[in-house]
Amino acid sequence: MINKKYLVIYNEIAKQIDEKLWEPDQLLPSEHELKEQYNTSRETIRKALNLLSQNGYIQKVRGKGSVVIPRNKYDFPVSGLVSFKELAEKMNNQTKTIVHDVSLIKPNSYLKQQLQLNSKDQVWQVIRVRDLDGGKVILDKDFFNERYVPFLSKEICQDSIYAYLEGEMNLSISFAKKEITVDEPTEEDQQLLDLDGFHNVVVIKNYVYLDDASLFQYTESRHRPDRFRFVDFARRQQ
Amino acid sequence: MINKKYLVIYNEIAKQIDEKLWEPDQLLPSEHELKEQYNTSRETIRKALNLLSQNGYIQKVRGKGSVVIPRNKYDFPVSGLVSFKELAEKMNNQTKTIVHDVSLIKPNSYLKQQLQLNSKDQVWQVIRVRDLDGGKVILDKDFFNERYVPFLSKEICQDSIYAYLEGEMNLSISFAKKEITVDEPTEEDQQLLDLDGFHNVVVIKNYVYLDDASLFQYTESRHRPDRFRFVDFARRQQ
DNA sequence: GAGTGGTCTAGACCACTAT
DNA sequence: TAGTGGTCTAGACCACTCT
């Protein structure tokens, strides 16, 4: 299936670490040994190991080797680009999505700026509320540039939009900028969410880009503060 | 100073993009051209370009070239490992640090767990309040494993602890796990911060590791919600 | 001194985009 | 078809850690 050697090697070792075949704080085999094992060049092994390092599996120590980092299985994959659906499945909770609105609108000036739109571009607006364990705790407002997403429907939004975009529309998401702040609830928040006396909402603004570096989506995800958790893994340069 | 070619090239191009010598959405010179320009091999150029890509400067598009990504100069460097001091300098604000406590303590069981300590290990506890534009809005609680940080003083904590640890102690920080949640204020929060009627604090828990993958610091940074902002840049795998 | 990872090279072939 | 980035190789030298 995958024909990239370094990915095959990365996936194999990552799986072994997940399954604790390598104990935390142990050393992996050296690059030279792995090179022999996988019958490949050292640079290819190094590509795989660098991926493991970037994803928090190992820490490379010069002169010593590659140390396996202690991981909580559920800690890491939360950072980055994660859809509500994936998250819900991971958390194994009772979840429900209520689609309030799916429509093609003329963007106001704020949206125009956020999505870097021309004056005639229209956008798809999707407003959804996420119900977790019987409480409406997340309000998701998605805006898609019509140029990249010509059609949406309530049915698609009920399910996973990303599955549709990537699977059927063949769009390929590559990176996202995220900004997290804590704000006062708006009237909309108060109407659509079960705020239960909370005085703040956590606002996550997401700018999502495609493979060719074009900005195609702006999202605001508004969380009741008790149902918000964000995990990040940061590696210092070099 | 720096004798790594790919870093020199990375820094030079990053600076050029910061200074808008390359316009957003333009293409950089091809890898072949850069290779000639810098009189080096293509793999070295690729290393520099991959760093630029990982740090949100460019997006590489197969068959086309490297597209410069629109950046807000102040957006990006906030993610990852940033000390309060760097942040304060960047934001150019009036800031003040009040050191409430610097002492060597026996860790309670929570700390023991967070820092993965043996039963006889002691920890340095540092409690500081950050005053931004005349309001006490951040409470920083730092805990250092004594094994790695044998000595601290009020003077050191008044300034930048990291400058001391990296400059004088020669410790080298390499990566951190971060967890962000929103909590009720504790009594300590209420006593030490100007909460001004806010009902929540943003809690950032940080686990900081050294070069050799040993955990040496646990930090809780507790922010008044109106003074909190977190920016993240996530690139999808491959 | 032996073994480790970090950097760098010169060249090859492939997949994709433009025209 | 020419030009782009993506992958892979085999080899070299260096800086570091361990004993």
Automatic annotation (TrEMBL), chains A, B:
Residues 3-71 form the HTH gntR-type domain. Pfam families: GntR (PF00392), UTRA (PF07702). GO terms for biological process: negative regulation of DNA-templated transcription. One of its GO terms (molecular function) is DNA-binding transcription factor activity. SUPFAM superfamilies: Chorismate lyase-like, Winged helix' DNA-binding domain. Transmembrane segments: none annotated. PROSITE patterns: HTH_GNTR (PS50949). InterPro entries: Bact_HTH_transcr_reg, Chorismate_lyase_/UTRA_dom_sf, TreR, Tscrpt_reg_HTH_GntR, UTRA, WH-like_DNA-bd_sf, WH_DNA-bd_sf. CDD domains: WHTH_GntR. Keywords: DNA-binding, Repressor, Transcription, Transcription regulation. PANTHER family: HTH-TYPE TRANSCRIPTIONAL REGULATOR TRER (PTHR44846:SF12), MANNOSYL-D-GLYCERATE TRANSPORT/METABOLISM SYSTEM REPRESSOR MNGR-RELATED (PTHR44846). This is Trehalose operon repressor. It comes from Paraliobacillus quinghaiensis.
